[in-house]
Design a protein that fits this description.
With about 230 residues, this protein is an alpha+beta fold. The protein contains ten helices and five strands; from the N terminus they run ααααααββαααβββα. α1 runs antiparallel to α2, α1 (about 5-30) crosses α4 and α2 packs across α3. The chain is globular.
C-alpha cells in the first residue's frame, strides 16, 4: 500500500492554514491563533499515517485529506472547550475561506469541467470501479442518469470515505458538519446540488443530484442551518 508523502501533506496543510487563518483570528485573536494552528499541524501529522489509501485518484483522495485537516482542527478546538456545534460553524467558515482563496476564474473553470463529457465519462467509470471495493476505506457509489427535467445527473454514495475515517477516529459526530461544505462547493462551482439524505446522518445513502444553474438545496444540522441563515 503506497504511503502518503508526509512532508508534502504538511506543507500543503501549512499553506491552507495560512489562507484561512483569518477565520481563527476573528474568534481567538492573533496570538491564540498562532498556537492553535501549531497544535493543529501536530495533530494532523499524527493523523497522516492513519489515513487509509484509496487509490491516490483525485478528487477523492483530496476529499479524504481535507477531512483529516478538519479533524485535526476539531481535536484542537475540543481541547479548548469548543462543542461540535461550534467547531462545525468554524469548519464551515474555514471551507468558505479555503474556496474563496482561489481566483474566481479558476472556480468557474472547475465548475464548467464538472459538466464536460470527459468528466462524466470518467465519473461513470469510477463508479463502476468503486463497486469492486478494492480499498476498504474508499468511496463506493453509483452514477445516476439525469431525468432530463429535475436534475442533469446524480451520484448515490453507498459508502463514504469521510464517514468511515471519522468513525475509525472516534469522531463520527463531526461528519454531518463536514457534509455541509457541499453547499459552498455547489455555490462556488455552479452545481445546483440537491441532497435529501446522507450516510453521515444515518441514511442508507448520500443522494447527490446536480442541476446546472439550479438552486442549491442541502439539509444540514440545525445549529449550522441557523448559523448559515444568520450570515
Amino acid at each position: 500500500m503506497p504511503p502518503y508523502a508526509e512532508p508534502k501533506l504538511l506543507r500543503e496543510f501549512d499553506r491552507t492554514a495560512g489562507r484561512v487563518r483569518g477565520v481563527f483570528v476573528s474568534r481567538f485573536g492573533e496570538e491564540s491563533t498562532q498556537a492553535l494552528i501549531l497544535e493543529a499541524h501536530q495533530a494532523y501529522a499524527a493523523l497522516i499515517p492513519q489515513l487509509p489509501y484509496i487509490g491516490g485518484k483525485q478528487p477523492f483522495t483530496q476529499f479524504l485529506i481535507s477531512t483529516a485537516w478538519l479533524l485535526a482542527m476539531y481535536r484542537v478546538l475540543q481541547r479548548k472547550g469548543q462543542t461540535v456545534e461550534e467547531a462545525g460553524k468554524i469548519g464551515y467558515d474555514v471551507m468558505e475561506a479555503y474556496l474563496q482563496a482561489y481566483p474566481r476564474y479558476l472556480r468557474r473553470f472547475l465548475g464548467h469541467m464538472t459538466w464536460s463529457r470527459r468528466y462524466l465519462r470518467r465519473l461513470r467509470e469510477r463508479a463502476a470501479e468503486s463497486q469492486e471495493r478494492r480499498y476498504p476505506g474508499d468511496y463506493v457509489f453509483t452514477f445516476v442518469e439525469g431525468d432530463g427535467l429535475t436534475f442533469d445527473y446524480g451520484v448515490d454514495y453507498a459508502e463514504c470515505a469521510t464517514v468511515k475515517f471519522l468513525q475509525a477516529q472516534g469522531a463520527p459526530e463531526l461528519a454531518p458538519y463536514l457534509c455541509a461544505a457541499d453547499i459552498l462547493y455547489s455555490q462556488a462551482l455552479g452545481w445546483g446540488l440537491q441532497r435529501t439524505t446522507t450516510l453521515a446522518e444515518g441514511g442508507e445513502r448520500c443522494d447527490f443530484r446536480f442541476k446546472r444553474g439550479g438552486e442549491t438545496r442541502v439539509a444540514v444540522p440545525e445549529p449550522l442551518c441557523a448559523y448559515i441563515r444568520e450570515r
